[in-house]
Structures are given as C-alpha cells and as structure tokens.
Write a structure and sequence with these properties.
heterodimer, A: alpha+beta, PmbA/TldD fold, 6-stranded antiparallel beta sheet, 6-stranded mixed beta sheet, 10 helices, 21% helix, 39% strand, B: alpha+beta, 7-stranded mixed beta sheet, 24 strands, 41% strand
C-alpha cells in the first residue's frame, strides 16, 4: 500500500489507497441436507488520485500490478469529475466495537450443528417442508492511507444464520424465512427458528382478501421490503443536490408523522454495519434524519458535501468497489408504544405484510410502490385468520408515513441495514384475485 | 497480472490423481471500464482489473468450494476444497457424463470494447446526455455505461481444458422529469456481446425516452384490478424470463418431489402455439457461449413446445439426479461463486398474429411497454412496465402511469391467448439469483396478449 501511494504521489498531487481483505467460511444446507462448504479469500485495492484538480480512479485485486493501477487511475483523471474536497488528514476516530475474536474460532463442526438445529426444528414442525440453511463467519480488515497523512485500520468480524423453508401443496407454494447477523458468534439459532415456525403456524389456514382500501400492518421485515428504499434514495445527499429528492427543500419542515424519527447509526456495538470511519476516512457519527416528523438533514460523502456546501456525515461508501458515494450505514427507526398484538386487535378487516415482492420496482424517487404479497396474513375482527395470496398492495411511502395509525414498541434488526418496529398504516389500496 | 494459463497448466497433473469423485478449477482475468453520469455532471469514471480463481471438489455427493485472488500455495487451496467436500459428503456423487473438451475460444469481437479510449466513449455519452437535458421539464438524468473483457480457463479431473474469452457492453440511460412535487422516470437499457457499435446511434431513442418521462407527469394512474394486457416484445421477454424461465431452472426442482410432480414433462402449460426456448447456442447474444462453467456444451432447449412442458435447464448434477441430459446451463458470475443453474437467451417463438389484429377486439385493456424490473418466487411473479397506454375499442389511447403486473405463473401462462409475429430480443439488463448479479442474459418475445392480468393501482 505504501509503495503504491508513493508511486501515485509522483504523478498526482493527492492520492489515497484503500484496501479490503476478507476471509469467509460458509456451511450450506440444501433440501434439508448438508450440501456444500465454502471458503472465499479476497483482497481488493482501490487507488483514487487528484491530478490537475480532477479525480482519477482504478481498482485491482490483491495480486494486481501497482504500476498498471497508477496508469489506469491517471487515464481516468483526464476526464474525472472536478475534486471539490480535501482528503482528510489525521482525523481522530471514535472507538466502535466490531471485532470479536471468538468469531474466527467457531469450528466448522459447530457451524454444521447450528445448520442442523435450524433444519431439524422446521422439518419436525411441518411435514414435507424443504429447508435451505446457511451459516457464515468472516473476518475483514480495512486499511486506508492518503497523501495528507490520513490513515485508518480496522478489523471486523461477522457471523450470520439464514434459514428458508419451502412448502408445496398442489401448485400452491409457501416460502418462509428469517436471518440474523452480528459481529459476535450466534450460538443459539432459536430466534430465527421461532420466527419461521410462527410464519408457518399463521400460514396454515388460507384467507381471502377483498379488493378495497384496507388498514395494513407491516412487520419489521415488511417495513424493510416495502417502505425503506424510497427513503434511502431521498436522504442521499447526491439525490438532494440534484433536486430529485422529494425532501430536497424540506429541511426543518414537518413531512412525516410526528411520531416518526429516523437516524443513521454506524456506531452501534457489534453490529455488522458499524465502523469507526467511512470508506474515505471520515470519522463515524450518528446522523439524525427525521426527528418527530421534521426533516433534519441528509447523508453526505466528501465530494457531495463540498458541492452542497455541507460537511461530510461520514457516509462515503464504496459499494462494489466504486468511487465513494453517500449511503446509509444502518438506519434506525425509533420505536413507538403500541404492541403488535394491540395493532392486530384494533383492526376489523386488514392485512399483515411480512414480505412484499416487487416493491423495489416502483417509482423509488416519487415513493409510489406496488407489490405482490409473498407472505402476508388476513386480519378479521382483531385476529389473524390465515394467509392471503394473489394479492397486490399499492401505496405511496410519503403518504403512508405522513399519517401513521401506530408505530410498534417491539423493534428488530432486519439484516444489517435497518432496525425498525412494525408499522400500522391506515389505508392502502389492495387488489386481489382471492 | 498473474499468468493464469501457466497456473492452470501447473494443476493438470494434480487433477489426474483421482482423490475425489470430481474436481474442477476456474481461473479468470477480467478488465472493465465504466462511466457514470448523474445529472449533467460526470459522476465517476474508472478502470479495474481483477484476477482470481477457485477450486471445486465433489466427494460422496458433498461439494467443497474455495475461491481466492491470491495464487500462492495453490496446492493447499486444492486440498482445502477436497477436505471440505469430504466433510460435507455422506451420500453418492451423481454427475451426468459429458465429453471432455480441449479448446480455445476467442471473444469474437472485432474490437475489445475495454481498449476503446475513454475519451471516445465519453463523447458519445455526452451527446446522449445533452439530448436528455434539451427536453423541457426533465429535472435530471442518470447514465451508466460499462464494458468488460474476460478470459476464463476451466479444467477438470476428466481432462477438459477450456479457455474462453468474452466481451460485454451495457448501457442504461434514465430521464427523470419533475413538476409540482411529482417525479416520473423512464429508462432505456441496451447491451451487446462486446460490440461497442451496438450502442451508437441511439439519439432518436434517447429523445423519445426523455419526452416519455415528461408525458408521464400528466398521465393518470390506472385503477387496480384485472385487465386484458398486451405486452411489447421487451416486456414480454421480461415476463417469460420471470414467470417461466426461473421455474425451468431445475436446481429448485431436482430434490423437491412435490415440485417434480408440478413440472412433469408433457404437462399442459399454455395454448397450443406457445413455444418457449432457452438457448446459449444462438450466436452473438449476451447470454451466448460455447461451453458453460462446468465445461458442458451449450444447447438449444425447448422449455415449452406446443403448449406442453418439454424440457428444463440443467447443471451436470441436476441432470444426473433427474435422469435427463445436461443442457449447459451451469453458470457463475465470477470466480468467487460456484456455478448454479441459470438462463442464457430465453424467448417465446413468434406466432402469426399482427399487432393490429391483437388489439382489434379489446374494448378496454392496457398496452404495456418497456422494462423497469421483475422478480419471481416461482409460483408468483411481478414485473413492471416502463410505459403504459390504455387500449380503447381496439385502438391505443391515452398514456397512463407505469404499471406493475403480477400473477400466478400456472394460470397466467394459460391466459396468453395471442402470440405475435414480431420476435425481438432485448439485450439490456441482467439477471440475479443466489447473490450472483447481474449475469448477462438476453430475453425476447413477439407481442403477446394476456387475459385477466392483475394490475396494481389506486
């Protein structure tokens, strides 16, 4: 890394080298049986330079040629965007706990046992179900070095459990599933098992949905699938700068329900999305986005912040090896006061949505979405009566979040990117063949 | 760059020792370049090179897989894969037999797109972006261009040694219109198997796309419910990919007895003139290749012939377990993944009806065009149109907001009651499955008409 930085500094005024190395081990079960064991080793290197005021960028894998990397970056710098920012110098980083040395110590045998436990619990609960399960552990090391003396090094551990079940009767297919991840080992798969068994219990009976406007409860998984994508786009500082975010001119204004609060949190201990600094060496911070319905601010990386005359919020992210761009680390929605059971009890006729398929194909910028209820349930007179199918739900995220019937008190992490309670929404348009 | 030919050669002796039921390795080198615009400004431009490899072993029905981009201690990695397979296996290994092959296959493009100077690519994109911005009420634009050139060397314990090169070009343009808090967007996706010329001369299409985005601001939203829907070739191609293609991938079928009952060959799935094909053997499309990532030769596979289930897509393992022939559909997006059963070029064969005949007797229906996205859960699928129009009394009428269509594959295929005479292949977009995305595929169809299609709306 030091050698590449030195070589790059000979041809460019500023330079930055970013390296990620990772080792991952995975145990996979398919159709109820242990099927595959997998290890992935990877090192990637990215070089960003500023030459004559323009950004050049190139990446390579671990054994790539340093000279080629510098030449590639130089060629792109001739057309690169004008650098409006300065690379951070020796910044101080907060201490964020994200490495547990116990993770790489978990044996393959223990991982296989975890997978077997998950599969056994589901197959002994429901006859004829086929399960896929995955147990993963990994360790990654991130190193960053720049020509202004900035440097960062951190190590992160990751452990996850994933379970999916598929039950077919005639041509009727039911898919259930749940996952959990942490920077700690997860020695107990019971949480994952409980969620899947509950999904199976609720889906035992069939119910029909009418075609009309109905109140809807999105579970935490449902919120993640149906409502979050438009917000991720709307709070992206770059989308705001372009004027394409519907929230662009709404800072300080009440746009959402007064019970709705949202922030980005890269500092939560032992969460896989946490980190001491972002992918360009800016210190992590908690960034409020919505407080009690009022828009507080947006997420920025260095370049976007400079163009918008703001400060980077430490959200420069290099997804898939690209140049840093603003992205949330982990979004957290503040829980409310209503339990899930109270929500269900309040509804005479409505739906619970756990998985909505296709919502990401909607008009993300405008907030309109529409999706097929992949896993959802009918509520009649305050009780869940069975699973609904052949049903589509449509709505607009901004309209839904402006006037929320209730926000749940039981909050939950969905994968690594969102912590949210369930949402009870007043009226969404439902079309059904049921 | 490491010399992957030499690395592959160094393993051939080791691979003949027969310590496993089956052993294979893939080595890859890949060069790419990309240019992204957000709005009027160039957002990022870059080049990348990558190389890496993997080893996959099969012992007693269990697979071991290890990927790496550090080529040191290669023999240790081979052993790791073998040990993993030994730990995972407890049954019997089954792989359909194929003929070993030793062949070197060039990319077939006259000009490697990665080596075209970035300045030349940028000039073309600048022209397109100017067109988008010249349309009033367009608020902003997105353009993503990327190309790649890749060499993959495959070897296995059955003495296959195959070196294949391929090149790929893809572009996605998007115009975003906004007015009074309303935001609407229309996109255009195109790709080719490495020919940069395929994305030149799009100026008229880019203009039309931008004007369509503005028109959507003034278009009403349709009421949700069941409609007779006519799909254009692009959207019908996405439909055949989502609604039926994924169901034909036999990795979901081979160990699932109930699924095997549903997918019995000869079962009636659609009207008599419905024919659905997957074929990597068609030359020059984005899903085309000569050998798949298990070294199996590409074939043309009828999935549905004259309305009846006629075949499915296989890897060597799924073919053996179902006692069918391998079809050459085991694909991996890169060296970090083992190959899984995937589509290649999937299409509905053309019928005889003209577009005018198809809409002539529709009193009220929807003409859905262009592609926005699509996904499936096997039984249920959703896919969304980029543009849509009402059909009234046999004529195309007013534009409406883009719609999402959903359905149950088993009923929807039977509801296709008209197949057009105008097959067109769509080379844009990519397919995602099992975390491997976007895999270059193409799909296509003539215009088709579907009765009783469920549309989401207000």
């Amino acid at each position: 890394m030091e050698a590449i930085l030195a070589r790059a500094q000979k041809v460019a005024k500023e330079a930055e080298v970013f390296e990620v190395t990772s080792e991952e081990t995975q145990v996979r079960f398919e159709a109820n049986r242990l099927k595959q064991m997998q290890t992935n080793q990877s090192t990637t290197l990215a070089l960003r330079i500023i030459k004559d005021g323009r950004v050049g960028y190139a990446t390579t894998t671990g054994t790539g040629d340093g000279q080629q990397l510098v030449e590639d970056a130089l060629e792109t710098a001739a057309f690169g965007s004008e650098a409006k920012f300065k690379l951070p110098d020796g910044a101080k980083y907060p201490k964020v706990d994200i490495f547990d040395p116990a993770v790489p110590q978990v044996s393959i045998k223990e991982m296989v046992t975890l997978g077997e436990k998950m599969v056994d619990a589901v197959t002994s609960h429901t006859a004829g179900i086929l399960c896929d399960a995955m147990v993963t552990r990994s360790v990654m090391t991130v190193r960053l070095l720049n020509s202004r003396g900035g440097q960062a090094v951190y190590k992160k551990s990751f452990f996850s459990l994933d379970l999916e079940g598929n039950l077919i009767k005639g041509t009727d297919m039911l898919f259930v599933g749940e996952g959990e991840c942490s920077c700690h080992p997860l020695p107990n798969p019971q949480n994952v098992i409980d969620v899947v068994l509950r999904q199976l219990d609720l889906a035992k009976h069939k119910a029909k949905s009418p075609t009309k406007v109905l109140p809807i409860i999105f579970t935490s998984n449902g919120v993640a699938g149906a409502l979050i994508l438009p917000l991720i786009s709307a709070f992206n500082g770059k989308v705001v700068l372009e004027g394409a975010s519907p929230l662009a001119d709404k800072t300080g204004k009440t746009v959402f329900d007064k019970n709705f609060s949202l922030y980005d949190d890269p500092m939560a201990a032992y969460r896989p999305a946490s980190r001491p600094c972002d992918d360009e060496g800016v210190a992590s911070q908690r960034t409020p986005l919505v407080s009690k319905g009022i828009v507080n601010g947006f997420l920025y990386d260095l370049q976007t912040a400079a163009l918008a005359k703001k400060k980077s919020t430490g959200n420069g992210s290099r997804n898939r090896g690209s140049l840093p761009t603003p992205a949330p680390s982990a979004l957290v929605i503040t829980p409310g006061k209503t339990t899930f059971d109270e929500m269900v009890g309040d509804i005479k006729e409505g739906l619970v949505i756990e998985q909505l398929m296709g919502a990401e194909q909607g008009n993300i910028l405008g907030g309109d979405f529409s999706g097929n209820v992949l896993l959802g349930f009918k509520i009649e007179n305050g009780k869940i009566v069975g699973r609904v199918k052949d049903t589509m739900v449509s709505g607009n995220v901004y309209k839904i979040l402006k006037d929320i019937a209730a926000i749940g008190s039981e909050t939950k992490w969905v994968s690594s990117f969102l912590q949210t309670p369930p949402f009870y929404c007043k009226g969404l348009s439902v079309s059904s063949k049921g | 760059m490491p010399q992957i030919e030499e690395i592959a050669q160094s393993l051939t002796a080791e691979f003949k020792k027969g310590k496993t039921d089956y052993l294979e390795a893939r080595f890859e080198e890949n060069q790419t370049s990309y240019i992204m615009y957000r709005g009027q400004a160039l957002d990022s431009i870059g080049r990348s090179t990558a190389s890496g490899g993997n080893v996959r072993a099969l012992v007693k029905g269990g697979w071991g897989f290890t990927s790496f981009n550090d080529f040191d201690k290669l023999n240790d990695r081979v052993w790791l894969a073998i040990e993993q397979a030994q730990s995972a296996g407890s049954g019997k290994s089954l792989l359909a037999p194929i003929d070993p092959a030793q062949e070197t296959i060039p990319s077939g493009v006259t000009h490697n797109p990665v080596t075209i100077p970035l300045a030349e690519k940028k000039r073309l994109l600048d022209e397109y972006n100017e067109i988008i911005w010249s349309v009033p009420e367009v608020k902003t634009s997105n353009i993503g261009y990327s190309d790649s050139h890749k060499k993959v060397i495959f070897l296995n314990s059955e003495s296959s040694l195959i070196s294949q090169e391929r090149a790929d070009v893809s572009i996605r343009l998007q115009a975003i219109a906004a007015k009074d808090g309303e935001v609407q967007q229309v996109g255009l996706s195109l790709g080719s198997r490495g020919e940069f010329n395929a994305i030149r001369n799009l100026h008229d299409k880019v203009k039309e796309m931008s004007q369509n985005a503005v028109a959507l601001l003034y278009a009403p939203q349709v009421k949700g419910g069941e409609y007779t829907v006519v799909l254009d070739p692009i959207l019908a191609g996405v439909f055949v990919h989502e609604a039926f293609g994924h169901l034909s991938e036999s990795d979901f079928v081979y160990e699932n007895d109930r699924m095997r009952e549903i997918m019995v060959l000869g079962k009636k799935f659609g009207v008599d003139n419905l024919n659905i094909v997957d074929s990597a053997a068609e030359p020059g499309l984005r899903g085309s290749f000569k050998y798949d990532d298990e070294g199996t030769r590409a074939t043309k596979t009828y999935l549905i012939r004259e309305g009846k289930l006629a075949g499915r897509l296989h890897s060597r393992e799924t073919a053996a377990k179902m006692n069918e022939k391998p079809t050459g559909n085991a694909r991996a997006i890169n060296y970090r993944f083992p190959p899984i059963v995937r589509m290649t070029n999937t299409y509905i064969e053309p019928g005889k009806m003209s577009f005018e005949e198809m809409i002539a007797d529709i009193k009220e229906g929807i003409y859905a065009k262009n592609w926005y996205g699509g996904t499936t859960s096997m039984e249920m699928f959703t896919f969304s149109a980029g543009e849509a129009y009402m059909i009234r009394n046999g004529k195309i009428a007013e534009a409406i907001r883009p719609i999402m269509l959903t359905g149950n594959v088993f009923t929807t295929l039977k509801n296709i009651d008209a197949i057009g005479n105008d097959l067109d292949m769509n080379q844009g977009g990519g397919c995602g499955k099992g975390g491997q995305m976007p895999l270059p595929v193409s799909n296509g169809s003539p215009h088709i008409r579907i009765r009783h299609c469920l549309i989401g709306g207000k």
